[in-house]
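re: that complex we talked abt at group meeting.

here r the seqs, copy pasted straight from the sheet so there may be weird spacing, ignore it
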Amino acid sequence: MASSYHKMGLHAITPDRIISSGMLTKEYLYLKVPDGMVAYLGTEGSAHYIESLGLHPIPINEVNESNMDKIKALLFLDDEGFDWKDGLNKAINLMRKRTIPAIVANTDHAYPVTIHDLSVAVGGLAMMVENIVGKKFIRFGKPDSQMFMFAYDLIRDHRPISKKEIVMVGDTLQTDILGGNKFGLDTVLVLSGNTLPKDVDTRVTASGIVPTYICDSAVVQPEMF
Amino acid sequence: MASSYHKMGLHAITPDRIISSGMLTKEYLYLKVPDGMVAYLGTEGSAHYIESLGLHPIPINEVNESNMDKIKALLFLDDEGFDWKDGLNKAINLMRKRTIPAIVANTDHAYPVTIHDLSVAVGGLAMMVENIVGKKFIRFGKPDSQMFMFAYDLIRDHRPISKKEIVMVGDTLQTDILGGNKFGLDTVLVLSGNTLPKDVDTRVTASGIVPTYICDSAVVQPEMF
Amino acid sequence: MASSYHKMGLHAITPDRIISSGMLTKEYLYLKVPDGMVAYLGTEGSAHYIESLGLHPIPINEVNESNMDKIKALLFLDDEGFDWKDGLNKAINLMRKRTIPAIVANTDHAYPVTIHDLSVAVGGLAMMVENIVGKKFIRFGKPDSQMFMFAYDLIRDHRPISKKEIVMVGDTLQTDILGGNKFGLDTVLVLSGNTLPKDVDTRVTASGIVPTYICDSAVVQPEMF
Amino acid sequence: MASSYHKMGLHAITPDRIISSGMLTKEYLYLKVPDGMVAYLGTEGSAHYIESLGLHPIPINEVNESNMDKIKALLFLDDEGFDWKDGLNKAINLMRKRTIPAIVANTDHAYPVTIHDLSVAVGGLAMMVENIVGKKFIRFGKPDSQMFMFAYDLIRDHRPISKKEIVMVGDTLQTDILGGNKFGLDTVLVLSGNTLPKDVDTRVTASGIVPTYICDSAVVQPEMF
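got the structure back, here u go
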């Protein structure tokens, strides 16, 4: 992700300054799942950090009667990298038969793939499985405050800072702005594909989610950082 | 479906006595979609009645930019017969771009495939699409009263009958018993895989859905009909 | 209600031609609750038909430990006529302790009291109680097809008619138009306080609920009937 | 609250060691609402901290056309201290007419008043208002991680501590245990009125919320602290 910012000339955005819900998933596994097999929905790449924790990752399509009892957690990581029909049915039966935590490393239900088209995100698939199984899954991502806390803690490791000195910038009312507001930050809504200038008033009024500032575009100079 | 009852020796159950949510979908199309293309998720067999209505069925995986504008309705018929990833993403983008009705011929979110395992039903897939798209889909099936009305009308075509003379028999509280109760019928809960004897008290109390009678098993003599 | 139409000069609308969700509640009680006490939230007037069924109505605020065991059903009839705090807490504890049906004779969560202001409807209060108690309540009203069926049956008592000869006229997409569409009727959305001309396109697109016709105003001549 | 612990002989629990969702509400107001009127549902006592922030508290029943435009936020603090019918209708119309934040200082929908009876909590009332108004309210309380973060920060002000050294003790799966697990803590479910010994296995399996330890009772010696 950092490299895509570098292409835009934003060299101050180094990988260690980007926070993702994967980091919270990793922290959760480190703290709560000491050893054993962890099943996942996603690409092999999305599961790379599981082994570094001393856990044994297993793709959902490889779960079967003989290994099911050894699985300690189920991770929803990515919508790519597995057969949906087989994988979702296996996820449902795994969660019905075993009492293990399911962790969703993405709160979005869909994401844009082109300017016109959406794709179902792994968070949307997880919502369907959760609804059918009737159990409570653990979700990491905005607007949940744990995501903001994680970032806030990282910043405070560098220097003392109060919430009054931070602004949250984002293009989506339901995640970036709602989460930032609740965490006590000033918020800047940047108008983009997710929130178009012509819709912004209607959406703010309808949702009741009010950014402190609204900004026409996210054109920023690298030296601003 | 009638043939499976025949194997059980229940010869009085002829095809014209079986009512399915497909019949309501067919009636809906007859009344509300006079002509044009209808996209569907399901097997070719599940879509057989579309052509008999003078409509042109098109499998969801064949929907594309060039034919999208001709589609008049989207049907969720069956979880088999199409590629889930491609089909569900196409269903989402079709419903986002076009203002057409989506009809779900199945209210279940999952169904048993073996004594131990469930599969996601097309009603579960439709629930995910509906949630992502944010539009209101039309669902046919129990506990909706339209299903009961359809059956009640068919019976009254044969002879006058009052609701006090009918009982609804079923094995699921949330569909059979809830729908029968609401429609004003006496209801019989038959204990089976869906509601086990050891769970029945807890489930009735927790759901607040109370059958008039509870029956240990559905063993019936053909001559009872 | 008929008298308010008479003031508008619509004398063809006689009381026997008006259908309300109260009629379905009355039919439900007649078919499913043969005798005993029935607790209700609402005015004394809203409960008038309970006694005519041979049942004994009791206002929710008079429910207590000594009579609770005799109550056979709980009815949500009206937001007026009882103390909310005491009544809602009593409704919750009654539904937790007893396994009896709760019937909601109104699907709206709120209703307009002036051109600017809403009031919580008894359907909104019932939704809160249902959510806290976790049991399934029985609701009568649009868009549920039972309401349309009841009307359709009444019309057919006078003369044979097909669904293709009936239109549903209403001012609300989520109830009148959705219910009419699902029942297979052509639908007419009349623009009014509930759906303003400036909002109609956005709302149809956002909800996916499409009326067959849209009509600027409901100005009708009595001789039209 | 501290005094009730003192009566039990737990003198180590001083007021500065008790964390409540009111503290998060206070922090939110301090960070996000610099001045003006704040309307509230609750007792005068529950609103005591509003004035100390330089804000002007106004009970919901005193909101009217003339002061409505000056109100900067709506707080749901307590189910006592106001007339429900007038207050809830005023809350709905205030949130429909004004684009201001609504803050709910309690995530519970109901709470026990005796061993047998529940009362609707202000969180239950807020849920009804939120549902009718269709806007997103801000909720503070377990299982939200912000509550755990607030406590964690307070502890770290005294001494460095890792999450592996903390356990979360509580009697409710959906709030204490779910929140503690997600925050990465070991969790102890104490069996009490909220989770009875006979129900614990069923509830853990049904909810999928698994405590690290289950403990028969919360009998603790003061010297344990």
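couple things i noticed - Chain D touches chain C at residues 79, 84-85, 88-89, 92-93, 96-97, 109-110, 116-120, 124-125, 127-128, 131-132 (CB under 8 Å). The helical segments of chain D are 2-7, 21-32, 48-52, 84-97, 122-133, 145-158, 173-183, 200-207.
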